[in-house]
Amino acid sequence: MDGGRDDRFLACVAEEEAVAFRYNGFSHAVMMATPADLEDFALGFSLSEGVIGAPSDVSGMSIERAESGIAIDIVLAGRCLHGYLSRRRVRQSRGYAGCGLCGVEDFESLPRPVARICRSEPPAREAIIAALESLRSWQPLSRSTHCAHAAAWVSPDGSIRAVREDVGRHNALDKLIGAGLRGDFRTTQGFGLVTSRCSFEMVQKAVAAGFAALVFASAPTALAVRTAEAAGLRLYACLRERGPLLFANPAEISS
User: Fold this and answer.
1) Does domain 125-252 have CATH number 3.90.170.10?
2) What is the pTM of this model?
3) 58, 52 contact by CB (below 8 A)
């Protein structure tokens, strides 16, 4: 209170909880995340981690509140389980909301480039701009708390098909990937849009999910561009008055 004026106001804050991933009873990682769209998160995280290759690799899932957070128990099917156990690694630390590589022990544990993705028609500039202009209306968590990232899937005409939010940008993208795996959209039709900076692990997640084009709200790192080029991912960034700029174009890269 200053000079008789009461400056207090009611503010909404975003939830952030520990979310533990277990596969067939084996602990894998603990991520700090917004406790929403957890089935999407489980599928998207499992795909981007390389644990599964398709939704059919998951034969069951349960989500329960534990003493210190939320436990997601995922049951892997047949050959997927055998593959997971043969290459199983456990993150050695908690995965915080802003970090994509927490707990990786050495260089050999870093994610490797995957096979090149299928080419598709590049998104139109008008579609990118239209999606950016309408995205805010799809972000209730961000509007109320001012601290959440969003990842969206956009149709070729610029209309938004799905949006997932989280305090962590990696989590938001994983949730969107999971939504696609559950049938909310097809990655062969449209492009991804993320309200965050573009780092190489975000590109790798999109490539693992089969995205053909990805748009970010800020410029990418050099490693993100090289990773996108190697995989055949069109990578855009929207830089305020300059509009969407193309940083990686598979049409210019020999197969």
Assistant:
1) no
2) 0.88
3) yes
How far, CA to CA in Å, does 99 sit from each of 5, 6, 91, 191, 203?
41, 38, 12, 24, 14
Closest CA to 100 of 26, 176, 204: 204
**CATH 3.10.20.10 domain span(s) along the chain:** 17-109
Catalytic residues: 99
Give 214 or 119, the one with higher predicted confidence: 214
Query: Helices 200-209 and 38-48 meet at what angle, rounded to 10?
Result: 100
Coil, helix or strand at residue 219 = coil
CB environment 160-176: b (16+ within 10 A), e (fewer)? bebbbbbbbbbbbbbbb
Q: How far is CA 159 from the centre of its chain?
A: 19
Beta strands (DSSP E) in the chain are 17-23, 26-33, 58-65, 70-76, 149-154, 160-166, 191-194, 213-216, 234-238, 244-248
Q: In whole angstroms, what is the distance from residue 74 CA to residue 46 CA?
A: 9
Give the three-state DSSP class for 69: coil
d(CA 233, CA 34): 28
Q: What is the distance between the alpha carbons of residues 209 and 48, in angstroms, rounded to a whole number?
A: 7
> Comparing C-alpha atoms, which of 187, 181, 180, 221 is closest to residue 201?
221
Question: Per CATH, which fold does 17-109 belong to?
Answer: Ubiquitin-like (UB roll) (3.10.20)
| Residue 164 predicted with pLDDT over 60 | yes
